[in-house]
């Protein structure tokens, strides 16, 4: 029979450097818990959104520890206090971060590098080349493009946004799974209109990512 639903995890970074806010976390928090697809087929299964409930800090040690937990399939990671022991199968993960440029562009990051992460985190500590994932490839790429009109980028900035993308891609690479993680860079303009647009764009991106999965909407379970 057809899939009954899909599950997409979403994370968002919190305030960093001189910024006392982060649109990434505002967009993540504003997403609905379920998306009924906007395609013409009303029988398409719903998409459940698991929002990581905490703003991700720009601290290397925390990020290195957190990222594997995001992929371990435990519902309690996304819903603290949950007593469910049922393994959660994540179909897609969307990481959201705010770029510091003045550009109003939205970017889908296409690749992530292992190092060299020379900029200090919010705790004042840096990360040396090769420390992110020992033995991992120097560059990992997102090999699939969801069908959505957003500018793509090959340089996420060698900071925490690129590192979480690299860590997630590395985890999937070790599992021989590809095309299930996306990093979205959003503008820093802080207005209600900008955040609402971000929520709309992210919802469209989630739908596009699910639709790009092999056998989407007709997978046998």
Q: Please mark out the parts with pLDDT under 50 across 5 or more consecutive residues, or reply none.
A: none
Percentage beta strand: 15-25%
Question: Any idea what the radius of gyration is?
Answer: 17 Å
**Mean pLDDT level:** 87
Largest sheet: 7 strands, mixed
Kindly, what is the distance between the CA atoms of the first and last residues, rounded to a whole number of angstroms?
6 Å
Give the overall shape: globular
Number of helices: 5
What structural class is derived from the secondary structure elements? alpha/beta
N-to-C series of helices and strands: EHEEHHEEEEEHEH
> What is the strand arrangement across the widest sheet?
2-3-1-4-9-5-8
Strands, total number: 9
DSSP helix fraction: 25-40%
Task: Put the structure in a nutshell.
With 221 residues, the protein is α/β, with parallel strands linked by helices. Helices cover 26% and strands 18% of the residues.
